[in-house]
Automatic annotation (TrEMBL):
DUF6917 domain: residues covered: 6-130
Record-linked Pfam families: DUF6917 (PF21891)
Protein name: DUF6917 domain-containing protein
Species name: Saccharothrix ecbatanensis
InterPro entries tied to this protein: DUF6917
């Protein structure tokens, strides 16, 4: 079996705007891509969901909005990456919705319960890191 992915660096970012709303009928659509490249200075939206289906085009309705982050260093964000806010694990990247692209991506984060920015204590300038999930050795 050939491995497709090698090691990568984490992608750092900072909160630029905290969002407070949630929806049960959002109608986001998962992009067919398991990863997206991001550039330093780009701004992307973070959205939590308890949705689990990663089928391309899957409809995502139950969401809560965390906020917008500015990317601090270029890199690759992959499905399954861990999302850390101020040192605490928020969830893992489920995928991407491009309804606002090229302005920004919605980065969908899988969590047990959709949570808003204030519910997680987000504040402007708080650090958010997308890091490769640690796979236990077998």
């Amino acid at each position: 079996m050939m491995l497709e992915d090698g090691d990568k660096r984490a992608v750092g970012s900072r909160v630029v705007k905290v969002l407070v709303h949630r929806r049960d009928d959002r109608g986001m659509s998962l992009e067919p891509y398991a990863s997206r490249c991001v550039r330093r200075g780009e701004v992307h939206e973070l959205v939590t969901t308890d949705h689990h289906d990663t089928t391309p085009g899957a409809r995502v309705d139950r969401v809560a909005f965390l906020g917008f982050v500015e990317i601090a260093n270029a890199g690759v964000i992959d499905r399954g990456d861990e999302v850390w806010c101020d040192g605490g694990l928020v969830g893992t990247v489920l995928g991407f919705d491009a309804c606002h692209h090229p302005n920004h991506y919605n980065i969908l984060i899988s969590t047990p319960t959709p949570r808003t920015g204030p519910e997680l204590g987000l504040r402007p300038e708080m650090g958010v890191v997308f890091s490769p999930a640690v796979v236990p050795a077998v």
